Amino acid sequence: MDMNKIINYRNNLKKAFDYVAGLFSNDMGIDLGTATTLVYVKGEGIVLCEPSVVAIERGTSHVLAVGDEAKRMLGRTPGNIVAIRPMKDGVIADFEITEAMLRYFIKRVHHRRVLVRPRIVIAIPSGITEVEKRAVRNSAERAGAREVFLIEEPIAAAIGVGLPIQDPIGNMIIDIGGGTTEIAVISLAGIVFSKSIRIGGDEMDDTIIEYLKKAYNLMIGERTAEEIKIKIGSAYPLEEELSLEVKGRDLVGGLPKAITITSQEIRDALRGTLDAILETVKVSLERTPPELAADLIEHGIIMAGGGSQLKGLDTFISDATGLPVHVTDDPLTAVVQGTGKVLSEIKYLKRVTVPIKSEMHSY
User: Fold this and answer.
1) Measured by CB atoms within 10 angstroms of the end CB, which terminus of the chain is less buried, N or C?
2) 3-state class of 152 per DSSP?
3) How much is the pLDDT for 268?
4) Backbone angles phi, psi at 359, to 5 degrees
5) Residue 22: per-residue pLDDT
6) pLDDT of res. 361
7) Backbone φ, ψ for residue 310 (5° rounding)
8) Nearest to 30, CA basis, from 182, 153, 146, 194
9) Coil, strand or helix: which one is 355?
10) Strands across the sheet containing 190-197
């Protein structure tokens, strides 16, 4: 048997296996976020929402825990275990660990280890490179996907919140995730203008950590910073300012220490990060065609993503732009809901997903 026949035989065998496995696999939509991964299964809805964290043995790629269990280990692991986040700024920072995380989520959703070859739609930041797109696709394929579609996060979020993106009117969405903020003006099922900055909830957490270091000589971890942001963080003055006791390690004496901080302090600390997001919104509005800009006066701006839940952020942006700003009812799930909706319409799916250019170059 010549080599071509062997290759054709192997290809046909793989296609047959994929077809059979596909019959036993449910199509999935994944919001592969820097901070949180959400999974939507066709016919079932959102079935999984867990931190994008993986615990491995130090110096190896042996996975010990994924998701909630791994996040509980952040900052608390013994020397032989390290808890890491394989996604950074919305893109893959560790290819091998991301693949392991995806494989874990795929198998967990299907409750088995064999004959799992689902079709997967993955939401990606609008500003990532072709190389980064291929890394996402390759990770999903190696994790067990038989077919991978990529959809830009602003489009997915707009679909998820029910915006009429196929109509000839302007829709503006701001999606603030853990690693990126995506801002897009959408019309006729396409992005008219978009801007992506690698600033999000993680940047806010880092800013809080740095503030407490400088102001109080107090060292805190990522989990504590996130808790501060959620409980007393704000972008706009509150009717009643809040306070919170924070525990950490004194950088001078090295001993445990507790202090009380206020929402006013955290708001001031976050000002630089919030101003960067606001400046990107203003640039996007300036680049919006006049006819679509007029639509925004009537329909306003929609906010989604976990970062949009920061207290008063909608008012902060509305005051600065003069436009109505609305936070969607469930901002954390908007993107994954969008991936789930396009799963059910193949023609629509191929219209809104992102093509990946070939790795081959023409000369």
Assistant:
1) C
2) strand
3) 97
4) -75, -15
5) 45
6) 38
7) -60, 130
8) 153
9) coil
10) 190-197, 181-187, 171-176, 301-304, 325-327
Name which of 126, 168, 178 is nearest 332 in CA terms.
Answer: 178
d(CA 353, CA 332): 21
Domains of the chain and CATH, by start: 25-155+336-354 (3.30.420.40), 164-327 (3.30.420.40)
Collect all residues with Cβ–Cβ distance below 8 Å to 225 and sequence separation of at least 6. 205, 206, 208, 209
**Token digits of residue 180:** 């990126």
Q: Determine the pLDDT at residue 255.
A: 95
Distance CA 91, CA 150 (A): 13
CA distance 47 to 38: 8
**CA-CA distance, 64 to 292, in Å (whole number)?**
50
Mean predicted confidence (pLDDT) in 287-313: 94
The length of the chain, given as a count of residues: 363
pLDDT tens digits, one per residue of 139-189? 888 888 888 999 999 999 999 999 988 889 999 999 999 989 999 999 988
Q: Given this model, what pLDDT does residue 199 score?
A: 93
What is the arithmetic mean of pLDDT over 116-141? Answer: 86
Query: Mean pLDDT lowest for which of 59-68, 112-121, 182-191?
Result: 112-121
Which tokens sit at 31? 């919001």
Q: Which residues of 101-140 are buried (b: 16+ CB within 10 A; e: fewer)?
A: bbbbbbeebbeeeeebbbbbbbbbbbbbeeebbebbbbbb
Alpha helices in the chain, H assignment, sequence order: 3-23, 68-71, 95-110, 130-143, 153-160, 201-216, 222-232, 263-286, 290-299, 313-321, 334-343, 346-352
Does pTM surpass 0.90? no
Residue 217 has φ and ψ, to the nearest 5°, of: 55, 40
Angle among Cα 259, 265, 267 to the nearest 5 degrees reads: 135
Longest dimension (CA), the chain: 80
Over range 38-53, report the average pLDDT: 92
CB of 179 within 8 A of CB of 34? yes
